[in-house]
Amino acid sequence: MSLLNPELLEVALRPLIESIIEEKLKPRLVEIINQQSISAENEKPIPVSEMSKILGISISHLYKKCNNSNMPHYRKFGRIYFYLSDIRKWMAE
Questions:
Q1: Strand pairing partners for 76?
Q2: Are 27 and 48 part of one and the same domain?
Q3: Could you give the CA distance from residue 46 to residue 90 in angstroms, rounded to a whole number?
């Protein structure tokens, strides 16, 4: 009979490992997010078809949200497009 049961060992160590990972990764995640916000100035506009895939909603539902001014979007030459940084801010609100 083994003194170290793998299942009990996992239950005992999981919180410790998760706290260490979060402690070490949190500063790196903040750094990555800051870099993304800097690169947001250079981002390309996203058309409706791609944004519907990103958000997982239908194109018609996306048009309804835009027509009701429920989400940030831009119009140019009769076409709607989005910036991912604007959508992230909108979803965070």
A1: 79
A2: no
A3: 15
Question: Residue 27 carries which side chain, given as an amino acid letter?
Answer: P
Helix crossing, 59-67 with 48-55: angle to 10°? 100
Let me know whether 85 and 66 are in one domain.
Answer: yes
Does residue 1 fall inside a structural domain? no
Give per-residue pLDDT as tens, 13-25: 888 888 888 888 8
pLDDT per position as a tens digit, 24-39: 888 887 777 777 665 5
| Residues 6+ positions from 47 with CB-CB distance below 8 Å | 79, 80, 81
Q: How many domains does the chain have?
A: 2
Output phi, psi for 82, to 5 deg.
-135, 160
Token duo for residue 88: 């992230």
**End-to-end CA, the chain:** 55
Beta bridge partners of 74: 81
Per the structure, the complete domain to which residue 75 belongs is given by 44-92
